[in-house]
Amino acid sequence: MTLKGRFRYVFFDADDTLWENESYFREAEHRFARLLSAYAPAEKIAACLAEKQEENIPVFGYGSKTYLLGMLDAAAGICGDSFGPEIYFKTKQIIHELAYHEFHLMPGIEEVLKALHGKYRLAVATKGDLLEQMTKYRESGLYGYFHHIEVMERKSAEDYLAMAAKLDIAPEEILMVGNSVKSDIAPVISIGGTAIHVPHEVTWSHEMMEIPASDRVIEVKNIKEILNFLL
Ligand SMILES: [Mg+2]
After folding, report:
1. Which of 4, 65, 147, 206 is most enclosed, with most CB atoms within 10 A?
2. Measured in angstroms, how far is the CA atom of residue 74 from the centroid of ligand 1?
């Protein structure tokens, strides 16, 4: 299948498509489990944290600040009366190091953007905390390739419709590239767009979902393969 000539825009997911992200969250989760290891086994801590995340995301949105709240909720529940300033500040330190971790672009991404730049209008379609996403965007040095960045609340179908309207394109003209089936593939397919799934080795349980059956979904193993469809 070729997509050449059918699209003016290519939308790119940011976390784990442009730059590494999820592995830092998993590392923070391991550190948190070590911090509470005297109170509960690692699996119980992980399950409790995941539950608190699901409760907090609809209220506070995505990003590391919500993750901090989830950790503190979990720690208070697991440690009971032993929860105090030491656990509070050590948890906060874990999140601080998560938010200001070493920055790594995904392998091959810059080569892909360079090859597409000038042939397509490129846009970042991401979600989460505005400050965090914009800080990473600036740090990435990739902004020269992009025409637009949209930091959505949830990456719902409605969020994609609003982004398309802003760029003056029909939903059918959306071509989205990303690693998350739930956020990057399913909502785009549901509104008539086309999506390319580039899996990342680490996927957050919250983002797990079956790939929708559609001839508008393309699966590749490596980001560089998208050039075979676009050039
Ligand atoms: Mg992603």
Report:
1. 65
2. 25
Which residues are CB-contacts of 15 (< 8 A; sequence separation ≥ 6)? Answer: 21, 22, 126, 128, 179
Per-chain residues with Cβ under 5 A from ion ligand 1: 13, 15-16, 179-180
Measured in Å, residue 37 CA sits from the centre of ligand 1 at 30
CA of 114 to the centre of ligand 1 (A): 20
pLDDT, tens digit, 9 for 90 and up, residues 80-104: 999 999 999 999 999 999 988 889 9
Q: If you measure from the C-alpha of residue 18 to the centroid of ligand 1, how many angstroms do you get, rounded to a whole number?
A: 8
End-to-end, the C-alpha distance of the chain in Å comes to 12
| Rounded Cα gap, residues 182 and 62, in angstroms | 14
Question: From ligand 1's centre to the CA of 172, what distance in Å?
Answer: 21
Dihedral pair phi/psi, residue 19, rounded to 5°: -140, 160
Taking the centre of ligand 1 as the mean of its atom positions, its distance from the CA of residue 102, in whole angstroms, is 18
Span 177-194, average pLDDT: 97
Rg (alpha carbons) of the chain, rounded to whole number: 19
25-80 residue pLDDT tens: 999 999 999 999 999 999 999 999 999 999 999 999 989 999 999 999 999 999 99
pLDDT of residue 59: 94
Encode pLDDT of 151-161 as tens digits: 999 999 999 99
Homologous superfamily, domain 22-99: Putative phosphatase; domain 2 (1.10.150.240)
